Amino acid sequence: MSVAIKVENLSKAYQLGQIGTGTISRDLERWYARIRGKEDPFLRIGESNDQHSKSESNVVWSLKDINFEIKQGDAVGIIGRNGAGKSTLLKILSKVTAPTTGKISGKGRIASLLEVGTGFHPELSGRENIFLNGAILGMRKKEIQRKLEEIVDFAGIERYLDTPVKRYSSGMYVRLAFAVAAHLESEILIVDEVLAVGDAEFQKKCLGKMGEVSKGEGRTVLFVSHNMASIKQLCDKGILLNNGIVQYSGKISKIISSYFINYNKQEVFFENDDFSAKKLYCTNAKNQTVNSVTNGSELFIKVLLEVKVQNPNLGFCIAIYNGMKELLTCINTFHIHSEIASLGTGKHEFVIPIPKYIFNEGEYFINLHLNSSSGDLYYIIENCYTFTILDDDKRRGGIYRDSWPGQISLVPNININVVQ
Amino acid sequence: MNEQEHDWTIEAKSSLLDLKLNEVWAYRDLLWLLVRRDFVSFYKQTILGPLWFFIQPLFTTIIFTFIFGNLAGISTDGLPKPLFYMAGITAWNYFADCLNKTSSVFKDNAGIFGKVYFPRLIMPLSIVVSNLVRFGVQMILFLLFMGYYYLLGAHFQVTWAILLFPLLLVLMALLGLGAGMIISAMTTKYRDLAFLIGFGVQLFMYATTVIYPLSTAIEKYPTYSWIIEYNPMTPIIETFRYGFLGEGSFSWQSLGYATTVTVLLLVIGIIIFNKVERNFVDTV
Questions:
Q1: B180 pLDDT exceeds 70?
Q2: HEC profile for B89-132?
Q3: Where is the ABC transporter domain (chain A) (predicted)?
Q4: Does residue A280 sit in the same domain as residue A209?
Q5: How many CB pairs below 8 A link A and B?
Q6: What ipTM was reported for this prediction?
Q7: Average pLDDT, chain B
Q8: Does the model's pTM come out above 0.80?
Q9: Structural domain boundaries enclosing A140
Q10: What H or E segment, with its residue span, contains residue A80?
């Protein structure tokens, strides 16, 4: 299969601090501060990639020597934390901004959806905006004419086609905007997190349309999202960006799991006058701290709390989510409430055993909710720990090779009765 | 991938002389839709709609007639004062509108430019074409005035130079466009330059023969009148007046000079504009 996009040694630098402040008067002020030996009054705290380290230079590499290839017809998910360089990459691919060094070459027309409804004018009717927006995205007038019916149909706004879009509900507005972009005849579709808007049904429709675009029509799709469920549904390949470099690229499931593994921080910090949450981690049966176990062995989630004042209200809940961010279970301390109420001051470790053959292979992560016995919430510490369950191959019987489907991994004893 | 296989590249540096005019051609539909948008949205947002197009030059003409014509007693080359001023104002307004709107094109369109790519040159071009509508309305007003004064038997005559009108129109548009694009590049770095442009254009009008004829300027300030003569808008307005009203200093040399300056500013403007356009999103 031929290559649709080839990225070679792509870098993008942003300058921190001494960019023009925007006005001459401010620049003069800055100059005056400098000659008096004062600090620059307009020094910008830029969006550094490694936000914690203080760099010597004031240049930040939002992307650094990126290399990758995307094959024609691939649906590629680009994931990474905030500031990893995802948006910069998309901006360069969309030609909104130029790279500092490097080169991208490609084949086919690019339709880029960094935002829906770019250039919509509130005073113009739906029809007029379809044409305007389509033309901004690079469509010719007759092309839009040909697709008009399809676009209107997809957006479901037939009745309001000649109404100014300022009278549209926000949902209609977004539907129309996405419909225009989705019907652009392009070989490559670039989509930023536009699906964050609109109701669930419409999001599903959008995902469906994008899936149709990539799988049905063989077009290349690049998709940035923080929603792992939609990425996994739509994409078969992925690129994980971290601090401006490509950390992994390959099969989407692998990319998503490496993204989550990057996440782990064992220290949990919450403190009030009554108690503090110190630590949350997992161990295996041998009391070794682990991030992964097989589904055939027990896992222990351990929470370290320090009780400062004897507190009958203390409680917590461990919420376990799967890789798709779906809540699987909540384990809370309501049923041991009386024991907690009588806890003396000092540090206490809560050990929560997770029986074997519960979770299927995959990535899981934990939110820690700190709450009172009446259920009032003090604090939620999101994504405070990730663990991986590997399959022990027992239920496969040496026959089934693919990853095991389903959310849970019951391995019941199957009895065979002879029936007369 | 073979070199032949890809059909586009994005690179860090682009050639200065790559003006991307073929891309602009490919997006010509967008140009018309933007013009249409400007026109329709202008209609819909105001009560008086296109009447505003009339009111502004009308009032300016009245005020100029009173102040400069009657109070200050500046010569109008023997032409009826309102006609003289209106000819200057109509031409000047078109140029000034193109210049003003083009010079803030990055600021006004930062939202769109930051989200989607299309040849940026389309935006200033659409401004120039949109302003043409307004210019057309003002031209109609001017022609009505001409008819009115003709019926009154005022002294003026249409000359052959009226045939140069299309050229004058193109020169005004491109001069405003070229200068505007150069300024737009500067205003991306310094926003406050926009204020300077606002009243700078006003002052510039006084260095153009809008409220006085070139002949008077040369007569009264023989040592400084070169400032006015080297102003590329002066030959354009003088030729405009000469064509429609039969008075004004017309010469092929001065018109040739204005054309040269216009082409030069336009080319420089496009080059600078294309250079700034590539990275302006990062600094806005």
A1: yes
A2: HHHHHHHHHHHHHHHCHHHHCHHHHCCCCCCCCHHHHHHHHHHH
A3: 43-268
A4: no
A5: 123
A6: 0.82
A7: 86
A8: no
A9: 3-11+64-260
A10: none
